[in-house]
């Protein structure tokens, strides 16, 4: 049955959903990487599509920006549409010295300044981590394609424009790879409702060095990331290799 945010029916979504923040990016993914595509959601222009990648049913839908937005869509996809595996595909700003523009980052864990996981975990700390098998299969896919990736801890910020000017330096000290705005809450939703989740990002800018990619360079690095994410899903289906 449709939910307040997703006007679809049970079975319209595949058991695996890719979640870019931008709904137009969801449309780009569907048009570029999937075949036999049909639109399954357009409420609030948060476009969702289901198609096939190398014969496997895959869905993709925008998630919006920030933990509250992705948490709504992830929860409804899991509880109302039977989705079992969700992969956030987005971008992050790097803080670690060895991080470079265009790097692909796999968020094994996610720190945050948000209280959402404390709210759901009775005010205790919750270690927000990705599904290990998805991490492993996506790393294998990257190795198979010869595309380097960095696996590590990321930081999910509630504020894009943070007033805490020294926070990025503190994250650098603790080895945080990059900053984004969704993963920690996204992982909490998956844990609460029994799904598997992963975040894969491209480094679009370096916060401490003041570097950033052009629009065309962002697209190239995004396509590499998408190939890794999709191949990781296939390898997760078939642990012996896609």
Strand and helix map with partners:
Elements: E1 16-19, H1 23-33, E2 35-41, E3 48-53, E4 56-61, H2 67-81, E5 85-94, E6 104-112, H3 116-120, H4 132-145, E7 149-156, H5 167-173, E8 178-180, H6 183-193, E9 196-206, E10 211-212, H7 215-237
Parallel strand pairs: 1-4, 1-5, 5-9, 6-7, 7-8
Antiparallel strand pairs: 2-3, 3-4, 5-8, 6-9, 9-10
Describe the structure.
The longest helix is centred in the last third of the chain and has 23 residues. By secondary structure, the chain is an alpha/beta fold. Helix 2 packs parallel to helix 6 and helix 4 packs across helix 7. Helix content is 36%, strand content 27%.
| Percentage of residues in helical conformation | 25-40%
Query: What strand order characterises the main sheet?
Result: 5-8-7-6-9
In round numbers, the mean pLDDT is: 96
Oligomeric category: single chain
What profile does the largest beta sheet have?
A: 5 strands, mixed, barrel
Shape by Cα distribution: globular
**Spans with pLDDT under 50 lasting ≥5 residues?**
none
Count all strands and give the number.
Answer: 10
Q: Tally the helices: what do you get?
A: 7
Helix- and strand-based class? alpha/beta
Order of helices and strands: EHEEEHEEHHEHEHEEH
Distance, first to last CA:
33 Å
Strand content: 25-35%
**Cα-atom Rg, whole angstroms?**
17 Å
